[in-house]
Amino acid sequence: MKVAAIQMVSSTRVDDNLARASALLADAAAQGAELAVLPEYFCLLGRRDTDKLGVQEAFGAGPLQTFLAGLARELGLWIVGGTVPLSIEYATSPGTQVFNSSLAFAPDGRCVARYDKMHLFRFDSGDEKFDETRVLHPGAAPVLFELPARDGHTWRVGMSVCYDLRFPELYRHYATQGADVMLVPSAFTHTTGQAHWELLLRARAVENLAWVVAPAQGGLHENCRRTWGHSMVVDPWGVILGQCPQGEAVVVAELDARRVAQCRAQLPALAHRRL
User: Fold this and answer.
1) CB 49, CB 12: distance < 8 Å
2) Among the options 40, 132, 198, 248, which is catalytic?
């Protein structure tokens, strides 16, 4: 199965971001991808964290979800929409927080999976400071979905977002549930990405003997935030099959289910766990 990790440098304007995402998804489809994954915050990297609140949608309705569903149908693609800000139905203070949600759409436009980012980023180096809990509400559970590919293999796909990458127990959970692909749409900062992005992605692939598809934001944004980029696809042995350092890109790679089986047979580490 061909997959595409789509790298963007999203702006503060939703319409412009959707136009760029549409063009990049069309490029992925033209290259034969069956699954295309957009980065975290593909629709908006605002000037303030609270800008997310202004474009939030109820799950199941809204222009961002309509956009993703429509393109999935038009292009015949499985599309994972990096993240979309979804309203919290049970919020005690409506509108003050949202879920940062990754949504998977089948080629017929159905939303087949929703994963709300569980781990929320906090970082303070003195020069840079981030705290996602000011605007985001954490998700409660891991989510897998099944993707029947054209060759007849049904992939089991584990969903995650950005900062989740630092919590290996999430990916081990997916591996024990039979996942052979892990998705990590992200917007890593330049500082943390330079230090840890590749290291963590390859570790998650090797630990779980699974494919990792990691699209990212990559560049200097209008809001002056600088993201690391280096979108990549990593095989179950930790080999990077495709990567782009910075700027817009469609990183295409071919996933082979036999590679997962081969690696897990050669090194049955998942069967050797003691805890």
Assistant:
1) no
2) 40
Residue 89's domain spans which residues? 2-272
CB 27 within 8 Å of CB 69: no
Q: Between β-strands 129-131 and 122-124, what pairing exists: parallel, antiparallel or unpaired?
A: antiparallel
Q: What's the total number of domains in the chain? A: 1
Cα separation, 146 vs 125, whole angstroms: 40
224 catalytic per annotation? no
Any idea which residue has 């990549």 for tokens? 232
Active site includes 40?
A: yes
Active-site entry in 117, 132, 198, 263: 117
Marked catalytic residue, from 43, 132, 162, 263: 162
| Known catalytic residue at 117 | yes
pTM of the model as a whole: 0.97
CATH number of the domain to which 105 belongs: 3.60.110.10
- pLDDT per residue as tens digits for the range 166-178: 999 999 999 999 9
- The SS3 of residue 242 is strand
